[in-house]
Amino acid sequence: MHFSSDDVVCRVACNLEQVHTADEALRAWLPLVSELQPVSAAFEAAHPDGVRRGFLADLLVVLPLPEDGAMGGGNARSRLLAAVDMLAPRLGLDPADFETNQDGAGGALHAKDGKDGSSYGAYLILALTGADPLNPDGGERDYEDTGEDLL
Fold first, then answer.
1. Residue 127 and residue 46: Cα distance in Å, rounded?
2. Contact 29/35 with Cβ under 8 angstroms?
3. Cβ pair 88, 113 in contact under 8 A
4. Core-most of 46, 69, 88, 146, by most CB within 10 Å?
5. How many whole angstroms separate alpha carbon 72 and alpha carbon 53?
6. Numbers of helices and strands, H then E, in the chain
7. What span, in angstroms and rounded, lies between the C-alpha atoms of 79 and 48?
8. Order of strands across the sheet that contains 7-16
């Protein structure tokens, strides 16, 4: 997926530990998905041997620069910080905890102690200006697996 250099692209990771069914998790996340309108979303049960419990969500959210430049002017760092300042409180996270990378075009916000302040279980925001934070080079990912299990 390709993005404009004026897009602030965010990966939002959520973990609902206290729900027992996928139906409960999806119902809990529905208001967030409706509000953020992600360009992609993935939902799954946490692996029983993994660090997390319950259900996980990964939302890819694109926040375009408004026409009037109200997101903090023209440079990438100011747009990034303004987008995180707007997004983090909606997820129950503190935008002051966001740490930018060296060039100021990306960064991450981790919930303190892995806990959040919302009913969505948000624990991580990865953000990058103009690209997916998990795939900054764009294009399709190349996986080692043959994909035979998908046939």
1. 23
2. no
3. no
4. 88
5. 38
6. 2, 6
7. 39
8. 40-45, 55-64, 7-16, 122-129, 106-110, 99-100
Q: What is the pLDDT of residues 77-136, one digit of tens each?
A: 888 898 999 999 999 999 999 999 988 889 999 987 655 567 899 999 999 998 999 988
Residues contacting residue 28 through CB under 8 Å, at least 6 positions apart: 16, 19, 119, 120, 121
State the pTM of this model.
0.82
State phi, psi for 129 to the nearest 5 degrees. Answer: -85, 120
CA atoms within 13 A on the CB side of 28: 23
| Phi, psi for 148 (deg, rounded to 5) | -60, -30
